[in-house]
Specification:
Blueprint (H helix, E strand, L loop, with lengths): L2 H11 L6 H8 L3 H13 L3 E5 L3 E6 L6 H4 L10 E7 L2 H10 L7 E7 L18 E5 L10 H20 L4 E3 L3 E4 L2 E13 L2 E11 L19 H5 L5 H22 L1 H4 L1 H6 L7 E6 L2 E10 L5 E5 L4 E4 L3 E5 L6
Parallel strand pairs: 3-4
Antiparallel strand pairs: 1-2, 4-5, 5-9, 6-7, 7-8, 8-9, 10-11, 10-14, 11-12, 12-13
Bound molecules: biotin.
Length: about 325
């Protein structure tokens, strides 16, 4: 943490104002240097009051997801935050950090992405300040063929965090879209680098629409996408939500690595499935499959009963729902 992030942390948790002398002592610098940090923090949007003869107090913090804002909300062991105001894609930055040896649990957060990436070569709408764009470096001891299960684990974690935050029934559209009232609120893109049978790193990238209004979506997304704010009518504390999401993912990832998908997250995922019972078409690498979704197989494949009665398991693909989602 930088000196400025440490000052914010101390002021946030202090019951009474902290004097310049005390801050200088904790940082091992002069009071003049403390003052310079306070001026810099004010420029970044922190409201720091200098109370005569008593010291500094934090009266307000900017709405951003930097280490100092996240620190009070991080409850797990993943604490290596890499925050940037702007980046092309947090996936690209996380990959570069992973290649340079970043440890498991390193997470990259940007306020804005200029080239946010979605699945199947799509772009991810990433305006500044309102949402969450993050990528996490993971290093599971996993055969590369099992990595798609990690996408399901991430989807279950995001849906659980949203349900906790909003009290709403967050569902998952296989493989990895989280929905509220049938509209997409989370997108997940999982990328990996592997050598033969060994995964070097996996990077789940998560985009969550938090505080954007429906009108702020591009016209082509308005019918299909939503945000937590649009569904609840209230502004979401982005830092608190981010802490919740990371804790949710770290807990499920730990169980997944220890027990495997079928014994850890599968039942929870199935309970949130938006597709079970729905009639769908799946465009998969092996061609199109049409039929009714039966659920999830133990390995994470989608079980579909085709119109000719045969059950097939689809490992990857894009699902279109015919006639709407089943009632839950
Ligand atoms: C999708 O639904 O198509 C996946 C969208 C994934 C978006 C997230 S935002 C954070 C991370 N960085 C990216 O460039 N993409 C992912």
């Amino acid at each position: 943490m930088t000196a400025e992030e440490r000052i914010v942390g101390w002021l946030r948790s202090a019951a009474a104002p902290l004097s310049g002398t005390e801050l200088a002592r904790r940082l091992g610098c002069t009071r003049a240097a403390v003052w310079k940090h306070v001026v810099a923090l004010r420029r970044q949007g922190y409201r720091i009051e200098a109370r005569h003869a008593r010291g500094y107090a934090l009266a307000g913090a900017p709405d951003r997801l930097g280490p100092a804002e996240l620190a009070p909300h991080l409850t797990g062991t993943w604490r290596n935050v890499h925050w940037v105001p702007e980046v092309d894609s947090t996936q690209r930055l996380a990959r570069d950090l992973a290649r340079a040896g970043a440890p498991e649990g390193t997470f990259v957060i940007a306020e804005r992405q200029t080239a946010g990436r979605g699945r199947l070569g799509r772009t991810w709408h990433s305006p500044p300040g309102a949402n969450l764009y993050c990528s996490i470096v993971l290093r599971p001891r996993l055969a590369p063929a099992l990595v798609p299960q990690l996408t399901l684990v991430t989807g279950a974690a995001a849906a659980a965090a949203i349900a906790e935050e909003t009290g709403l029934d967050a569902t998952i559209k296989w493989p990895n879209d989280v929905l509220l009232n049938g509209r997409k609120v989370v997108g997940i893109l999982t990328e990996m680098e592997a050598e033969m049978e060994r995964v070097a790193h996996v990077i789940p990238g998560i985009g969550v629409n938090l505080n954007g209004t429906r009108a702020s979506f591009p016209p082509e997304l308005r019918r299909k996408a939503t945000s937590l704010r649009a569904e609840t009518g209230r502004r979401i504390d982005r830092a608190a939500f981010t802490g919740r999401l990371l804790a949710s993912l770290e807990a499920r990832y730990g169980r997944f690595v220890a027990q495997g998908f079928a014994k850890s997250v599968r039942a929870e995922w199935e309970a949130r499935s938006a597709l079970t019972g729905a009639d769908v078409r799946v465009a998969s690498p092996d061609g199109e499959v049409a039929g009714r979704v039966l659920g999830l197989a133990g390995d994470g494949a989608l079980r579909v009963r085709r119109t000719d009665g045969r059950e097939v398991h689809v490992i990857a693909g894009e699902v279109t729902v015919r006639g709407g989602y089943r009632a839950r």
